[in-house]
């Protein structure tokens, strides 16, 4: 069982680092819900009548089965009470108990078949096929998501994109920025169908969860005997009372199952809203602030007119923060790079130099500095000296113990959550 659980966990939850990087928190929760549903289905699987004889039966002597006569699906009360079957006139000595047990386990009839016309165990479809219904629902949810992850991510080089956006650090000396920028533009240009595929997968996932919820709830409401511990079985005209189905366990599993499916459905509703309304994505809020301040940008085609790239960057920022996508786009657009570092608004020169930095109100950097999930720091380098200062709201004065001639060139960088996202070299100071 442990080995089976491990294989299931790997099949459902096991993904490459590249795939995980583009799986936001709600997708991870959905994966764990599907895994839980599969495990619950396997727990109830041994109780199915197909695998084993799940019931034990006793012959209805005198009025022992009379309590089943008040169900309109069976005979009328008067007919039921006066029947030879209920009053035990039939002799059951010729029937072997093992035969009766096997017969009632395998010959299942639903309550919808009115009257004691058919031989077999009278039980609802939900109870009879409960383990298989659970496994079927969980299997459908797995089939909805896994092909999407395996096929769609292979439709473009997700590993290469992950390497360029996350793994490679453009602010290291070993990296060729021109080559990195060219590869990034080429790879992102191939991402064209991701948006439509992701939206389709989310809609199918939502339908695959809401339809079983509706069916299970309606079946549970209409099934008056779901919580009964004994059921009636007719064998060659004789009535038996049969027990053995773990109805209390079924009830608990069903409630948990419907609850998890409901959470899964709500997560997909959230996901659809998140996909259809880009303004909900943090990275989009930053990028559209930049676009409002810069009418001309090299990212117009690769990002602003490409819903697939916007979605891909949104997924990456949702799972790992905005630092990686911002760093990559700042590398492709020098103007965005400059917009992500503070402006130098004043320089007071003397024996020491006081440099005044400011953040433009309403700028992308201003939005990032106010974001709760972003810890922004800045680094000023001159010569062999380094000055670190934390995020600030409007103006920050930095005193450098040297004259202007000795501090140029300056190198100013912005870090978000420990990752450098933008770097600007200042060769001249003119004020």
Can you describe what's shown?
By secondary structure, this protein is of the alpha+beta class. It has helices spanning 2-13, 17-21, 25-44, 77-82, 97-106, 125-128, 130-155, 158-167, 177-189, 194-222, 247-276, 282-293, 300-304, 307-320, 323-332, 334-339, 364-370, 404-407, and strands at 56-59, 108-109, 120-122, 230-235, 238-243, 343-348, 353-358, 376-382, 385-390, 395-400, 410-416, 419-426. The strands form three sheets. It has a five-stranded mixed sheet, covered by helices on one side. The protein has a four-stranded antiparallel sheet with strand order 9-8-11-12. The longest helix has 30 residues, at 247-276. The radius of gyration is 34 Å and the shape is rod-shaped. The termini are far apart.
């Amino acid at each position: 069982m442990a080995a089976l659980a491990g294989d299931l966990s790997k099949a459902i939850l096991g993904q490459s680092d590249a795939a995980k990087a583009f799986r936001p928190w709600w997708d991870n929760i959905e994966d764990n819900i599907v895994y839980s549903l599969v495990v619950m289905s396997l727990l109830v699987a041994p109780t199915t009548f197909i695998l084993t004889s799940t019931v034990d039966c006793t012959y209805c002597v005198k009025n022992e089965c009379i309590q089943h006569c008040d169900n309109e699906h069976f005979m009328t009360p008067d007919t039921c009470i006066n029947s030879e079957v209920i009053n035990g006139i039939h002799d059951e000595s010729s029937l072997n108990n093992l035969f009766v047990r096997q017969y009632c386990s395998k010959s299942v009839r639903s309550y919808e078949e009115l009257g004691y016309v058919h031989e077999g165990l009278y039980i609802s479809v939900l109870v009879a096929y409960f383990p298989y219904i659970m496994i079927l629902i969980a299997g459908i949810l797995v089939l909805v998501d896994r092909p999407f992850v395996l096929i769609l991510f292979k439709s473009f080089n997700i590993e290469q994109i992950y390497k360029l956006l996350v793994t490679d650090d453009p602010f290291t000396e070993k990296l060729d920025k021109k080559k990195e920028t060219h590869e990034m533009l080429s790879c992102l240009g191939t991402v064209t169908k991701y948006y439509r595929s992701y939206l389709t997968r989310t809609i199918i996932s939502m339908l695959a969860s809401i339809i079983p919820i509706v069916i299970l709830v309606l079946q549970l409401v209409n099934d008056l005997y779901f919580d009964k511990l004994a059921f009636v079985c007719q064998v060659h005209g004789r009535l038996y009372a049969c027990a053995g189905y773990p109805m209390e366990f079924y009830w608990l599993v069903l409630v948990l199952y419907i609850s998890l499916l409901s959470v899964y459905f709500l997560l997909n509703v959230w996901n659809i809203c998140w996909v259809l309304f880009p303004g909900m994505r943090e990275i989009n809020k930053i990028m559209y602030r930049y676009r409002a301040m810069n009418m001309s940008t090299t990212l117009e085609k690769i990002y602003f007119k490409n819903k697939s790239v916007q979605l891909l960057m949104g997924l990456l920022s949702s799972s790992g923060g905005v630092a990686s996508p911002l760093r990559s786009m700042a590398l492709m657009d020098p103007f965005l790079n400059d917009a992500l570092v503070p402006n130098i608004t004043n320089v007071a020169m003397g024996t020491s130099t006081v440099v005044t930095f400011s953040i433009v109100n309403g700028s992308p950097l201003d939005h990032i500095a106010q974001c709760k999930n972003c810890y922004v720091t800045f680094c000023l380098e001159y010569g062999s000296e380094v000055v670190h200062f934390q995020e600030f709201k409007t103006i920050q004065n930095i005193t450098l113990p040297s004259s202007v001639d000795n501090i140029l060139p300056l190198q100013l960088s912005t870090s978000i959550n420990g990752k450098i996202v933008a770097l600007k070299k200042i060769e001249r100071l003119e004020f």
